[in-house]
TrEMBL record:
Protein name, UniProt field: Short-chain dehydrogenase
Keywords: Oxidoreductase
Record's keyword annotation contains Oxidoreductase: yes
GO molecular function, one term: oxidoreductase activity
All residue ranges annotated as the Ketoreductase domain in the record: 9-192
Gene3D superfamilies xref list: NAD(P)-binding Rossmann-like Domain (3.40.50.720)
Family: Belongs to the short-chain dehydrogenases/reductases (SDR) family.
Keyword Oxidoreductase tagged: yes
Length: 266
């Protein structure tokens, strides 16, 4: 499969107001892709859009929207296409987590997490699977996590949502092979983003060194560009994922719980 020509792409990036989403936008704009930036914080999106347009001369459309609402993908596609914007790439990055014992979690926050991390990602992927495939050079990136490889006590629902994203995306990779559409699950370990503020912990990195957003996104795009790209890529924290494959399940779960409790009391 030939390398992606980013100059002829229009890419939707969700969760683009900060962190990995903003960095995906920067690196795609540097490759001359036009962009659609989606998140709730309109002011941050507009500031980023203005900077990318000024620096790289690309067209950047801002959509301030809560993707946790029902039918997120279908309504977004309908709105964009009514404005003549036809996406050829999609980066599903929007999501959040919380770092607490399950019994102490706010049930409404859990519902919002599942709606955004899982339901919105599925709806967006389904809404755009056909146009991305027919583009001939399209791509779909879903941001999972290293925590998707094993149970994660005290991040139980977040980890489970990322396990879903990993499994779902790798399945799509197989279903779409030979169509020209590239599909990739990106699995970062600990990353220097606002995630820890939103999750309620500054140290829930499970013993791995935090990577920069630049490293994670560059690794993702370089992997996507391989002649024979894999269905997923671990950008950092690989030993944690490998351990989950070779150690007894009970030991893995207990070790993850120990690390989480240590992080919570650090």
């Amino acid at each position: 499969m030939r390398r992606i020509d980013y100059r002829h792409q229009t890419v939707i990036v969700t969760g683009a107001s900060s962190g990995l989403g903003a960095e995906f936008a920067r690196q795609l704009a540097a490759r001359r892709s036009n962009l659609v930036l989606v998140a709730r914080r309109a002011d941050r999106l507009q500031n980023l859009a203005d900077d990318l347009t000024r620096t790289h001369g690309v067209t950047v459309t801002v959509v301030a929207r809560d993707l946790g609402l029902p039918d997120a993908g279908r309504t977004l596609r309908a709105e964009l296409e009514s404005r003549g914007i036809h996406a050829t790439g999609l980066v599903n990055n929007a999501g959040f987590g919380s770092h607490d014992p399950f019994r102490d979690e706010n049930p409404e926050r859990l519902q919002s997490m599942i709606a955004l991390n899982v339901a919105a990602l599925v709806d967006l992927s389904h809404a755009y699977i056909d146009p991305l495939t027919s583009a001939g050079n399209g791509f779909l990136i879903n941001v999972a996590s290293i925590l998707g490889y094993q149970p994660t006590p005290y991040l139980s629902v977040y980890g489970a949502t990322k396990a879903f994203v990993l499994s779902f995306t790798e399945s799509l990779w197989e279903e779409t092979r030979g169509t020209g559409l590239r599909v990739l699950a990106v699995c970062p370990g600990a990353v220097e983003t606002e995630f820890y503020d939103a999750a309620g912990s500054q140290s829930a990195d499970y013993g791995s060194k935090r990577a920069t957003v630049d490293h994670v996104v560059k690794t993702a795009l370089d992997t996507l560009d391989r002649r024979s790209a894999p269905p997923s890529v671990i950008t950092n924290g690989r030993p944690l994922a490998l351990a989950s494959k070779v150690l007894p399940r009970r030991l893995v779960v207990s070790a993850m719980g120990w690390m989480a409790r240590r992080a919570m009391h650090a």
